[in-house]
Amino acid sequence: MTKSLRRQQQQHQRKQPDSDVAVAIAFPSAAQARSAVKALIPDNVNMPEGLSVEIFAKGRTVHVRLAGRGGLVSLATVASTLDEVLEHLSVAKRVMMG
Q: Which pTM value belongs to this model?
């Protein structure tokens, strides 16, 4: 194996840095925040290895925490997952507000 090929393989195998994201979204009421969280539960399954998503309501605020761990998840994956969760929360909020 040439040095160039070995270097390419090593670069490819480099782990991604760990990443953490936390977002809080206010809803008009605690009941609506809880309903939004319940609506997202089916989406919070079959996550890629190393990616964790925590969504919970505290009062009238929905909290979203995403973490990419173990160098297995790229920042792009964390960002796209956050984008999807926020889009779903936005839809839930619009539906509840009529």
A: 0.77
